[in-house]
Amino acid sequence: MDACDAQSAPAPRPFVEEQRQQERERLLRGREERGIDQRGPEVPKARPTRLPSAETPCFPIDRILLQGESIERFHWSLSHIAGNDGSDPPLGRCLGAEGVDIVVSRVQQSILERGYLTTRVLAGPQDLRTGALILTLVPGRIATIRQNRGDLRTMHLRNAIPARSGDLLELRDIEQGLENLKRLPTVDADVQVEPSTATDARPGDSDLLVTYTRKFPLRTTLSLDDTGTRATGKTQSALTVAWDGPLGLNDLAYVSINRDVFNHHGRGTGGRTAHYAIPFGYGLLAFTASESRYHQTVAGLDEDYLYAGSTRNAEVRWSQLIHRSRSRKTTVALRGWRRATASFIDDTEIEVQRRVVGGWEASLNQREFLGDATLDATVAYRRGTGVFGAIAAPEEAFGDGTSRLKLYTSDVALNAPFRIAGQKLRYTASWRALMVRIAPSLEAWARGNSLLRRCRLVGDDDARAVMVAA
Fold first, then answer.
1. Contact 165, 202 (CB under 8 A)
2. Any alpha helices (H) in 114-241, and if so which ranges?
3. What pTM did the predictor assign?
4. H helix and E strand count, the chain
5. At 87, is the secondary structure helix, strand, or coil?
6. Of the CATH numbers 2.40.160.50, 3.40.50.1820, 3.10.20.30, 3.30.70.380, which one belongs to the domain with range 13-32+216-468?
7. d(CA 138, CA 298)
């Protein structure tokens, strides 16, 4: 008996079977949908240098201006003219050649730290007796994006790299493009920045050279584990076939079939999952459909009965990265979903247990990079709306929940690699909270794949450990 059994009645078997299937699908996604965090090299910090107190000759400066093309995109860079701690402002000071160079260096450093690798700031010839220091911005732009070598086609680049010829060259766009290209396990890619070789190239123009190689795009995985239950089959097997880039658009498709093996007659499980995903710059569109079933023999007074259940899920999901830096990412997502369940006794459906629900979910995820570790925090709102052929649950007639749920969830997960005796290990901890009033038959599905999340947090350390490891 586990910690949850000690505090609450055991969950009905259909809920347990569905949670097991959800866990299998989660592990399948983690294995096949490779997530890559591409982080470029950290920009070296400039050595703090204070403005000289006395220069000869020098000129009083009361304003600093930015001129040039696309200056509206870089006005924020002038907020760094007083140094990292803001304690060394140049305005109201008498600046000479050394002081001007320091101001230019500070503005340039702030632009580099934002990821604009080829944008430059200059202080051209000017009359400082006017009291104005004018800095000239030379925007670094992409002249062309071209293939260096490999079997990459143009269409691979257009939906992978969120930048086009003529755009400002930004490191975050390159990082996102590499993540889209390398999200397929059989693909490796690299992007280099080189001065443009075009005859009409302007100052600041650069070419992106993409190196792309891939192995045979079909992958097959056969697995065997003991993640099932004794009631329907402890030993589970799965066969997964994945195709990297079926449309040549950095897309991914896979199908997976799982079932019990080495089990006695009269009990068993099975399931199928199909998934397709395609990136569009900072966005990702994904479709997933799954079906699972189980059966078990239940002893009656006079005879045994075959109790069975089935679940069908379908969803479409759009996620959009709205902010990224070297230390964090922010992603919003919207998905539509449908779920249908049915139960049977000796091939006769128990109609009162039939459930069909559908709706949408909006979520916000924040990922923080803490050295080699990552911390993910997600908040989501799930709403059942009665779409996709949803039906009302019988419990609604008695006010015991609703099939048109309004569910708030929050998740926090920590993933930290470490080494012991030269061995690479990884520590993972997660926590989930939810607030909802729904039909009891939908409660396990709403909680997700953890069987421990219904436990109440009590005062002893063991209970806290169970909750943290959920």
1. no
2. 154-160, 171-182
3. 0.83
4. 6, 20
5. coil
6. 2.40.160.50
7. 77
Tell me the CA distances in angstroms from 373 to 172, 368, 427, one per residue in order.
20, 8, 9
| Residue 454, φ and ψ in degrees, nearest 5 | -85, -10
Residue closest to 264 by CA, chosen among 231, 288, 289: 231
**Between 15 and 16, residue with greater pLDDT:** 16
- How distant, in Å, are the alpha carbons of 33, 115, 177, 328, 364 from that of 39? 19, 11, 11, 10, 21
Measured CA to CA, the distance from residue 391 to residue 342 in angstroms comes to 13
Q: 60-138 — its CATH code?
A: 3.10.20.310
Beta bridge partners of 134: 65
Count CA within 13 A, CB hemisphere, residue 331.
19
Specify the amino acid at residue 461. Answer: D
Query: What are the tokens at 21?
Result: 């299937």
Q: Reduced to 3 states, what is the DSSP secondary structure of residue 70?
A: coil
For residue 458, name the pLDDT band (cuts at 50, 70, 90).
very low
Q: pLDDT digit string (tens) for 21-30? A: 778 888 888 7
For 18, phi and psi rounded to 5 degrees? -70, -40
List the domain boundaries for the chain: 13-32+216-468, 60-138, 141-214
**CB atoms < 10 A from the CB of 253, how many?**
18
Domains 60-138 and 141-214 belong to one CATH topology: yes
Contact predicate 455/467, CB 8 Å: yes
Superfamily of domain 141-214: membrane protein fhac (3.10.20.310)
Question: Distances in Å between the alpha carbon of 129 and those of 54, 60, 64, 465?
Answer: 17, 8, 13, 69
Give the separation between CA 329 and CA 375, rounded to whole angstroms: 11
Q: pLDDT band for 396, please (50, 70, 90 cuts).
A: confident
Q: Which residues of 393-421 are buried (b: 16+ CB within 10 A; e: fewer)?
A: bbbeeeeebbbbbebebebeebbeeeeee
Mean predicted lDDT score pLDDT of the chain: 84
- Of 37, 113, 36, 84, nearest to 328 by C-alpha is 37
45-68 tens-digit pLDDT:
878 889 998 899 999 999 999 999
Which is nearest to 267 in space by CA: 292, 294, 293, 235?
Answer: 294
Distance, CA of 253 to CA of 245 (rounded, Å): 8
